[in-house]
């Protein structure tokens, strides 16, 4: 199964692009008009790969399930309109807009509401119960995990786009582990692209009393790690580069293959647009990310992108950075914290709101 987005100045033009690339058998999953930019975006799928070869019976269960849910959602909405159930239709729209306002992907929001309404047919006019069901189902689909196990050695590379806050996140975690948990820490900088990146990390290292080393190649990195066999945690700072920089992603792929024990923590800003987050996940998933960390939670009150990202790639959330203060403004990602980020309800998955 091959799923792809197409953009055109009009719906007719976008559909033409779909047929040209995927053929007449392509299934139109979703159509939407951009609020700004004057283009139409179509999400289409075909039971073939990019080269046009038949996927046959090898369609994954996840893709099959997704398409089935999308079809059921469209059928449900159509039935609502035909039956004239206006109160339900108004409730659907109201809940959808509330979730979208909180930053949740519209398609995800629709799917959650559909499940809630179909699950609670006899109580679908109770908005509070619907919200509680949606919230619990959403939280139950997201995983959280602390990568820094107290009894095992940790090698972790922090990767992600420019300006996401990788270096500051490393400084916060290194400070907490060294000063609070009495762990032996080493910091390594592989960021030779950004001016002053190594100097910034070196300054942090001096403040908290941990060694900092710069490396310019994968071979140097391997030797540097070997020099720090006595350390409990080794944090690697990498350069933030454009998503179109294939050489950067290739080098990260080589890092994963050469050092399979190195965990990759993808750092992104919670204020990024959903489309940019999806593109970032698509690119970095090719090199095998292990965790997600979100920064700049202090710069706004909309956190739906966190849920969008976690559900999109299926990776656990590790940390949330809530400001610039080191080491105070960082916390472990927990269901309790996530419960306070979505929908103003009581009785979340952890019993709190």
Average of the residue pLDDT scores = 82
Number of domains: 3
Series of secondary-structure elements, N-terminal to C-terminal: EHEEHHHHEHEHEHEHEHEHEEH
Computed over alpha carbons, the radius of gyration is 23 Å
The structure class reads alpha/beta
Strand order of the largest sheet: 6-5-7-4-8-9-10-11
Helix tally equals 12
* CATH top level label of the largest domain: Alpha Beta
The CATH homologous superfamily of the largest domain: P-loop containing nucleotide triphosphate hydrolases
CATH topology type of the largest domain = Rossmann fold
| Biggest sheet descriptor | 8 strands, mixed
How does CATH name the architecture of the largest domain? 3-Layer(aba) Sandwich
Q: Which percent range describes the beta-strand content?
A: 15-25%
Task: Describe the 3D structure.
This protein is α/β, with parallel strands linked by helices. The strands form two sheets. It has an eight-stranded mixed beta sheet with strand order 6-5-7-4-8-9-10-11, with helices on both faces. It folds into three domains: 2-59, no CATH class; 75-140, no CATH class; 154-333, Rossmann fold. The radius of gyration is 23 Å and the shape is globular. The protein is built from twelve helices and eleven strands.
